[in-house]
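debug: dumping io for the single-chain case to check the tokenizer round-trip. Nothing else runs in this session.
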Amino acid sequence: MSQIHRKPAISNCKVVLIASGIALSLLSGSAWSQGRAVRITATVAEIGVIEETEWAIGVIESLAAPRVAAEVDGKVLEIRADEGRAVAAGDILAIIDSAEYRNQKAASDADVGRLSALIRDKELDVERIGKLIGQNLVSQDEADQVAAELDALMQERAAARARAAESTRKVAQAMIRAPVDSEVSIRHIDTGDYVQPGTIAFDLIDVRNLRVRLPFPEYRAPHLRRGMAVRLTSAASGSDSVDAMVTEIRPDVNPANRAISVIVDFGNPGDWRPGASARAELVLERRTGAVTVPQSAIVRRPAGDVVYVIEDGRAIEYLVERGARNGDRVEIRGGLSGGEKIAVDGAGFLTNGASVEISES
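debug: decoded output
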């Protein structure tokens, strides 16, 4: 019987010893962890300017993309500009046969010369008749007849001059010219083609003056206005961002996507191309005196967003209210006043009151 009771006693001692060892180990580990400093990097909560922005993606368009058509009929004699070529306003793109119009101009010029000679002769007749009337040698009816003939000749000469001017205009129109500084996008005609007025000859694109249409959410409509600052970037370009302004705002909301279109016109900074996408950041509001911290300094806790302020080598937890974000910096609308030293790298491992060691890096 004694052997039967002795084993439980020994077993109970072992349980007590094991439990005591575990407790001592936990207490020892806890004390060790409480005494260990967490290595962090720190910075200062800055006071500066923050911008509240809204972004959108649009497609770059040419501000002017004229389709140049032939203005006279005739055979195309020469092509002077091909696709991809840069042309200045007034440069000749193609030449249409203008021999017919030159001949018409020559005939009209000859008519003007002939009629001018007849008019000079008739003017002398009017002058002579005027003298004879004073001597009662001719009747008034005869004088009126000569004056009417002179007027008819002058009208014919005016018509001949108009025909000559029209022929001159057609001769000039036989040379198809670029209306604006641009690049040739598409050439629709070839040498030997017969064209008529209205035949599209070239599609041009103005690559110096560009436009982008940006869809913004309809709830932003009350905040949109002309002249607002916009920063544009394009993945298809190696150039830096472009600072521009809102040029126009469409009055209606697109029923397909419930967006309102904002139009931004801007000058090409170098290698931006129509048809490429552009990312726009619209500055809705610019606030000065804003407290900002790095994004990594804000830690999400059950109570909300917190920032750890370093005071006497310890991390003190401050509940904060987020605001706008610019790049890697976030506005703090409540909880900090600016100038506090805060934890950045390693902030996520901190608890309120934890000891910290600030790393130089």
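debug: round-trip ok. The radius of gyration is 44 Å.
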